Amino acid sequence: MEYCIKVLTILKTRIEYKYPLVSIVRHYHRIPFLDFYYKTTGEELSETYLPVLKKKHPNIESLTNEEIQCTLNILKKFDITPHEACKNLHIFSMNPIAVDNYGEILKECGFINIIPQYIIRYHTLVRSKTIKFLKKEGLMRNDIILEEALLNQFPEWPPDNKYLDKFHDSNTSILTVRKSVLNKYLHWKLSTSTEEFEKYCRHYLTLKHKPMSDIREALDIAQNDIKFNIDVIRRNGFIISTDPTKTKMLLENVTTLAGLNIREAIKIEPAILRNHYKSVLHVRNILEEYRISEKAQQHCLKIYCMKPSTVQQRLDELKTLKEYQVLSTNPRALSMVVHKNKMMLRLKKIQDARKQCYSFNNLVASNTVFKNYISGFGNKVCGRDIATLIVSYANSEDSSSKSKDTELLKSVLKQLKRHKYYLHATLSVVDETIQFLKKRFDSDVIFNQCQLLLYPVSEIEVYLNHLLELRNGGENKLKHDIRLDATYNYLKYQQLTDDQILSLVLYEIEKKYHFSGDGIWARQDGMKAESVAAS
């Protein structure tokens, strides 16, 4: 687990105890903690006592040997033995990183001894007890001036810029002094205001309970290694409270992400810092399994801020969804994974409103954009989404065309705009038509007549089959109820190219629907497109 890795990184050498867990050969129970407790104290906790133990100390029965060892390694830093820990079982129910942070903070604040009870009661000691009380009880050194001690934790901070608020020990808590010092430090370091600092404390609760040394190191990595500028750090306050050990492990173990240097990726999406490096690598492997391109990943690096299990589950669910299948080639397709729940709700509203011309923006954009779409009159799609879908079929078979994406996209969009109703074509119809035509024609031929993709297969295949039969000389198989334009009488059908065939099909369809648009939107009213032969 990530906190175990952190602990083993902090401790330069592995610490073995009188009863190291790795030496336990015989297991007296199915529960590792009970074995550890027996080996340490010589006393046996029966499994019948376990429900009482669980009620007082949650999660203790699910602890693994590795997790117990991690907690013991942290406690060793504060000279707490396994035997002492066993007298305060709640310490094993706490997050080991929190145990480490609380112990370090108490050490920074001049506690004479750090014992398990102090770590367990950390919040009471730093929030509710005055400094005078803690000194009187012998917990803190009498000679320590806490504010000065905390200011000295920042040696890079020029003495001329430091000043004391001169808190009175009789009515001041440790947390009050720590927040004051940290506020002043961040004001000097990042030019933050008191209002910004209070916002950080509200939104990032761990900030108030991070050792000053961790905060210093986190900012050092952010500014000098990742090269964040001050404005970015101020906008993303969680950077200040990130775990420096976890950040270093991310930078060391993940060199590239989505084809970008890991530092560049983090600069684009700083929230990646909040994820553990193993989770980031796991997400990357999942995306590779689904053959999601690095270009698509670059458009949505937020995917690397998610749990791998969530990414896997959402991709498994979305791959069966028709709307996702159509839009999966869009460079921003991963946004549908990130905003999956919102997208599914919007799809239902679109279906209830009997609108079929959804676009990518309608599914993942802001609520304002979606409300305008769902309440607006008419039924339109985003033209760029249609063009992107068409171009994606070219890229799927020619990787060299990636450098020409922009030009090809502009070319396709320019052709589509020549059709006055192109924004009323549904993406699913365009996708079905492309797949139908690609079985018979090359991509270049299809793109030259990309307006034809706006029409459903049922409108196209009647004329297409008829013209192909004429070209192949199969007059006997022709349907006599299909009437072509009279000007075709002198055409030499056998000499028609694929490009000319599709051009004629487009003409035959458009001469009926060019002024009405019915060829495109007849299906959107819940009606089946009429057969061309019936006209």
UniProtKB/TrEMBL annotation:
GO cellular component terms listed in the entry, alphabetical order? mitochondrial matrix
What organism, scientifically named, is this protein from? Diatraea saccharalis (sugarcane borer)
The protein's name in its UniProt record: Transcription termination factor 5, mitochondrial
InterPro entries hit by this protein: MTERF (IPR003690)
Which GO BP terms apply?
Answer: termination of mitochondrial transcription
GO MF terms listed in the record are: nucleic acid binding
